[in-house]
Amino acid sequence: MKYYIKKVAEPPVYSELTDWKPKKWAVFGASGFVGKNIVRELTQAGIEVVAISAPRMSLLNEQPTTQSVIEAAQTSSVVHDLAMKVKGVDVIVNAAGLAKPDSGDFNALLGANALLPTVLAMASAEAGVGRLIQLSSAAVQGEKETLDDTAEVAPFSPYSFSKALGELSLIELIHSNLACRVLIVRATSVQGIGRQTTESLKKFSKSCLASVAFPADQPTVVSSVTSLSCFVRMVGTFSGAMSPIQLQPWEGLTTLQVLELAGGKRPLILPNRVCKSLVWGGKWIGAMFPRIAGPVRRAEVTWFGQHQESFGVRVPFSSNPTLIRQILQES
């Protein structure tokens, strides 16, 4: 299955706001793993936070486009209802997406990860909200050797397609001079104590299958929910110029270090060519069975890692490498 999305122009850089001092935040998806940690981060920083339940949405469209998503949002009665709920809020964080990389429920994924963000952007503009922070995923860039903060996407699964479509729909709204600043935060492979993905990583790291591709020194996108939450706070409060797309910063680990920390032992280092052949075979199968694409991609990233770079105006942020180390060792 092909996941084609029409390209959009790069969004313009937001100018400096010298008087930007947000006082009240609203978090959608506050009961979820990431949302709960963001609320904790904001509360500890002395910021007033309200948790708002996100409406369940679906999008019945076999060939969705940014235009069809925007049109669906424009005709949704939910926009005005949400606008009434967020009046008086300075910053909205949308952490209510459907975080199920292996899901095959295309309509539900489109509703949660593409339509809902677009509806929230329109509601934010109607309510006079200053900023909307959309929690997206680096998965939107798929197999790119190097992740970046451009509008270029390369989805490879129903989940990554829904996230990419949500991003590009928001960028189209940015180009239309939406009366609210939309910031897209691309989270990487976020880990945390008690999270299922982290438990799965630890289980794999302790098994006899634990392995990385030679030379095992590639940077990894494995990151901590603590750093992500802090980064979201910085994106919401920063008053300087910034690009609408912000990639979660690298936290300093390599492919080898991740498995050593999570498993407490040294993993196998496999020949690079063998790993590439296995990934190629997995992708061939995944082309026929979309639900396989997610696990194959995770194996590829575990073996080969992924580089990161920035071309835009980044929000100043320094990651604390001890945070992800503690999570991998303690989870």
TrEMBL record:
<dbReference type="Pfam" id="PF01370">
    <property type="entry name" value="Epimerase"/>
</dbReference>
<dbReference type="GO" id="GO:0005737">
    <property type="term" value="C:cytoplasm"/>
</dbReference>
<dbReference type="GO" id="GO:0004029">
    <property type="term" value="F:aldehyde dehydrogenase (NAD+) activity"/>
</dbReference>
<protein>
    <submittedName>
        <fullName>Nucleoside-diphosphate-sugar epimerase</fullName>
    </submittedName>
</protein>
<dbReference type="InterPro" id="IPR001509">
    <property type="entry name" value="Epimerase_deHydtase"/>
</dbReference>
<dbReference type="InterPro" id="IPR051783">
    <property type="entry name" value="NAD(P)-dependent_oxidoreduct"/>
</dbReference>
<feature type="domain" description="NAD-dependent epimerase/dehydratase">
    <location>
        <begin position="26"/>
        <end position="205"/>
    </location>
</feature>
<dbReference type="InterPro" id="IPR036291">
    <property type="entry name" value="NAD(P)-bd_dom_sf"/>
</dbReference>
